[in-house]
Amino acid sequence: MKKSDKGYLKAYRTLDSEWLKRDAKVKAHLAAKPKPQTTKVQISSEGYKPIKHHADGRGFPHFYKDVHLLRRGDTRQKQEKMMQGFLRVFMRGTKDEKKWQQPKPEWARTSFRRKAFANWLTDTDHGAGQLLARVIVNRLWKHPLGRGM
Predict the structure, then answer these.
(1) CA-based nearest residue to 114, from 42, 47, 41, 40
(2) pTM (2 decimals)?
(3) C or N terminus of the chain, fewer CB within 10 Å?
(4) 43-95 residue pLDDT tens
(5) DSSP for the chain, written as a single string
(6) Exposure string (b/e) for 97-126, b if CB count within 10 Å is 16 or more?
């Protein structure tokens, strides 16, 4: 088929009753196409726009860029700025928190604090990994037996 013939066919199809019937069926089918069911989930990550929580109307922001030590837990009594730390009661042998922290690469848009937390949480030798394993096993036992170990 020549290129010029395609133009004639395109013009003629609007006059052809059989083509118009089929085209109407195709358009009706496409219009009735079911929409996919979506579920809204929370993504916990760094570098993305913060998700609004249920703090509306109480004067609290949805996200704090910096974390401060609060005197008596009052958000209006901020003291010094705090850095990331880990619960020392779960640390074995080492008390050096820098072990799990990594310097932020130049290309990164995140602070890599979540990665440091994940490293600490899964470290079975010096971090909280052994506790995490016990908690997971406890949860697994709870489902079939009705209670944890």
Answers:
(1) 47
(2) 0.53
(3) N
(4) 777 777 777 766 666 777 777 778 899 999 888 899 999 888 888 888 877 67
(5) --HHHHHHHHHHTTT-HHHHHHHHHHHHHHHTPPPPP--------SSSPPPP-S-TTTT--S--SS-EEEGGG-TTSEEEEP-----GGG--S---GGGT--PPPTT-SS-SHHHHHHHHHH-TTTSSHHHHHHHHHHHHHHHHHSS--
(6) eeebbeeeeeeeeeebeebbbebbeebeeb
Q: Which two tokens stand for residue 26?
A: 């195709």
Report the length, in residues, of the chain.
Answer: 149
- Residue indicated by tokens 């997971």: 136
